[in-house]
Design goal:
Blueprint: E1 10-15, E2 27-34, H1 37-46, E3 53-56, E4 62-64, E5 69-76, E6 83-85, E7 90-94, H2 99-108, E8 111-112, H3 124-130, E9 133-134, E10 137-138, E11 143-150, E12 155-160, E13 177-185, E14 187-188, H4 191-208, H5 228-234, E15 241-242, E16 245-247, E17 255-257, H6 263-281, E18 290-292
Parallel strand pairs: 2-5, 3-5, 4-18
Antiparallel strand pairs: 1-2, 6-7, 7-13, 8-14, 9-10, 11-12, 11-13, 15-16, 16-17
The structure holds uridine-diphosphate-2(N-acetylglucosaminyl) butyric acid.
Length: about 300
């Protein structure tokens, strides 16, 4: 138990389910919605030093425990949701900007290269942290730099892409680092070509991914040389259920949660899929999903 956090920007015992794409999970002990860096600093300064802090982006890659989160959840609003396409083709975006919106904003200004983000449900902050990718591209290929705050020192700096240690769905950023924003490099593109490429990606997505359901994008990282979706499919696990959670029948690396599903259902299903794929192939899948708060056991499966 830590000391109390009192700040006009902070609410207490706030249900988190609505802020995640799975729509499950309990309350945050504290929740702050901040509009700019100044407000973020004010909230952090008011928080006890040992209080766990987590910045939630689109909530598209997290499962919040049914018991909730015994710390401070920060939601980035206001200026963190702004996108600006410069005349030089550099696109500046706040960490809370949704990746499909980033792609559309660039395309609307006649700039290409970010269309692959149309298929990824996360935010700019999440993309930097995870080196999000798809359709043969990843964030490392289009990022110029990111604005990062290291929370304990309140140190804010612009880190060039080369210094972020981006690897496959990974970076050198730690839990102490918060992504505040990023700048992306784009290329001039013919509007008709951009339009048809964007349509193609949207169509591919509708056919291959369970859009419109409660899901969190890809559940597992792709193991070297193969894909998690294929392995789960080949193990015959499409449609496998635990409570209100089910392996998507459209794409095996997506889980869908019905109304009434719990975080525990998702945790157990992730564990079961992991065990069964390991038994069938010897490959232990690594979750891309992040579990937040208390769950039974160290990791699912
Ligand atoms: N496959 C199956 N069965 C399935 C699903 C997929 O056999 O049920 C096979 C496909 O036929 C394909 C391979 O597995 O040969 C890979 O599948 P897919 O092309 O759908 O790509 P993915 O690797 O599963 C990645 C990203 C997605 C992104 C797509 C777009 C990861 C972990 N995921 O999916 O990103 O939308 O590419 O290209 O790299 C996300 O990260 O949350 C996300 C949605």
């Amino acid at each position: 138990m830590t000391g109390r956090l009192d700040s006009p920007l902070v609410r207490h015992d706030v249900p988190l389910a609505a802020f995640t794409t799975f729509k499950v999970g309990g309350p945050a002990r504290y929740l702050a919605e901040v509009s700019d860096e100044e407000q973020l600093l004010a909230v952090l300064d008011a928080a006890p030093a040992d209080l766990p802090v987590l910045v939630l982006g689109r909530g598209s890659n997290v499962v919040v425990s049914d018991e909730g989160y015994d710390g401070l959840i920060v939601r980035l609003r206001g200026t963190f949701l702004e996108v600006e396409v410069g005349g030089d083709g550099i696109v500046r975006a706040g960490a809370g900007v949704a990746l499909p919106r980033l792609a559309r904003a660039a395309a609307a200004a006649g700039r290409g290269g970010l269309e692959f983000y149309l298929g990824i449900p996360g935010s700019v902050g999440g993309a930097v942290r995870m080196n999000a990718g798809g359709h043969g591209r990843d964030t490392a290929a289009v990022l110029r730099d990111a604005r990062i705050m290291t929370v304990p020192a309140r140190d804010v700096r612009t880190v060039p892409v080369e210094a972020l240690g981006l690897g496959y769905r990974s970076s050198a950023l730690t839990d102490d680092d918060v992504v505040l924003g990023a700048r992306f490099v784009t290329v001039p593109a013919d509007p008709a070509t951009l339009e048809s490429r964007s349509r193609e990606i949207a169509r591919w997505r509708r056919e291959h991914q369970p859009g419109g359901t409660r899901n969190a994008g890809s559940v597992f990282k792709n193991p070297p040389g193969t894909s998690a979706g294929r392995l789960i499919d080949e193990a015959g696990l499409k449609g496998l259920r635990r409570g209100g959670a089910m392996v998507s029948t459209l794409h095996a690396n997506f889980l869908v949660a019905e109304e009434g599903a719990t975080a525990r259902d998702i945790w157990e299903l992730v564990g079961e899929v992991r065990r069964r794929v390991e038994a069938a192939t010897g490959i232990r899948l690594e979750p891309e999903l992040r579990f937040v708060g208390r769950f039974e056991g160290e990791e699912p499966g």
